[in-house]
Amino acid sequence: MKEPCVLIEKKGRIAYIILNRPEKLNALNSQLFQELDAALSDIEQDDTTSVVIIKGNGRAFSVGYDVSKYSHPTVTEDRNKLEEFTRRWLRIWEFPKPIIAQVHGYALAGGTQLLASCDFVITSEEAQFGFPSLPLGGGFVGIYWGWHVGYQRAKLLDLTAGSRISGKEATEYGFAARCFKVDELEEKTLEIARGIAKTPLDILKLKKQAHNRIMDLQGFRTGALFGPEQDAIIHTTEGIKLVREKIDELGLKSAIQWFNEQKV
Q1: Which residues lie closer than 8 Å to 222 by C-beta, 6 or more apart?
Q2: For labelling, which of 73, 83, 89, 90 has a CA lying 20 to 30 Å from the CA of 209?
Q3: Dist CA 225 CA 144 (whole Å)
Q4: CATH 3.30.750.24 fits 6-201, yes or no
Q5: Rounded Cα gap, residues 102 and 120, in angstroms
Q6: Which of 190, 17, 204 minimizes the C-alpha distance to 114?
Q7: Is the pTM of this model over 0.90?
């Protein structure tokens, strides 16, 4: 029997969704996504829950998509799969109840799409936010960052493979709302969630919707749905083919070393 990739816990009016692939640093795979979808559905129908906290077990929040297997899809198949991911992030963005991402350890690549789709990010000071260590695509992850950190910083980080910022920097940049020492993170995040949960749920839903409408008018949804087309096109380039060949030839860790040792 498979271990669950997502756990649910309740503390009063607060529900925790816990990513549970600690041995893979909570890399996002099909089982985790299916269980995440089910957890969201259950919590959405539960009127005793007002606020959701998403966090990760083990040493990381999430290092992003599990890229250990690559099936070489057609452009259309690739685009459709990427849109499936995007609509899941939009579902989190549109979720009727406030969602807090509680971040420790690593929050990388697709894991930052999850963060950017939540209402609030509360992080440890030492957490590491960032991009894939190899250029495996483009126009998919980075476009979520611009809404929070500004477009110059988003471009600088996105165009530099393997870029990282700390939880403290993420808070200064605007990607996170608050940061705390790692040993205070759990307690402080719960304290924030309980403060939000004091407001009646019907009011919370309408307040969240009002803020999201403004982002929607500014193009958040349209921009997010543009990402799958852009990324699918980039996946056909000679540069991406070269990086994939190096991963197949050397393995992921050695391919990262090959990339970092390039002379420019």
Answers
A1: none
A2: 83
A3: 11
A4: no
A5: 9
A6: 17
A7: yes
Residue 131 CA neighbour count, 13 Å, CB half:
23
* Residue 83 to residue 247: CA distance in whole angstroms: 25
Q: What is the pLDDT of residue 169?
A: 98
| Percent of the chain with pLDDT strictly greater than 70 | 98
- For 211-223, how does the pLDDT look when each residue is reduced to its tens digit (9 = 90+)? 999 999 999 999 9
**pLDDT at 69 (0 to 100):** 62
> Mind listing the pLDDT tens digit for each residue in 25-45?
999 999 999 999 999 999 999
What ranges do the domains of the chain cover? 6-201
